[in-house]
Amino acid sequence: MADIKDETISGFNCFLEKQQAAGDNATLTLVQFDTESTDVVHESKPILEVPDLNHQTFQPRGGTPLLDALGQTIDSTGRALAAIPEANRPDKVVFVVITDGQENSSRHHTKKSVKEKIDHQSGKYSWQFVYLGANQDAFDEAGSVGIAMANAANYAPARMQVAFAATAANVASFRRSGNAAKLAYSPEQRAELLGESDDQDK
User: Fold this and answer.
1) Around Cβ 179, how many Cβ atoms within 10 Å?
2) What is the average pLDDT across 51-76?
3) CATH number, domain at 197?
């Protein structure tokens, strides 16, 4: 993410703005991961209290232990929700995974173990998972850990802000409607994420 740091910061802030506009009935957990550590920037923070990212709070480093970050965050989220009285637990949980590189440094989790966790949480508790990947086949990577292809998309690194904006719109629509199909990327969004719609317009 170092090469697209500014775009990532702007994109996240766009995502945050759209979620705040969709209502205050949400919390946000933000996890940044690399080979140095997996850092929880915000944990279950009320959406209206989440500050914008900036160059101090977002520091890209190292490699991509994607599986470790996913496995760890799924486990910690499950524990946090289990500690909440059932009547007060959120009725929707959405994981949005955004990476600009393929898995290359996990030590504790495998695709199989992460897929088992995702299958369990999505099957038993209806958690939703979204996957955005650059410099890879996002459909293959998402499918290998049990994330529906409809909720996966490739994006060109230069289109990071567009990727965040499309994802933000889909998540906000899901929050309002409760319809999981709203999380799926449309053909038009997929073209925009790759910059293909711009080429077609010229």
Assistant:
1) 9
2) 91
3) 3.40.50.410
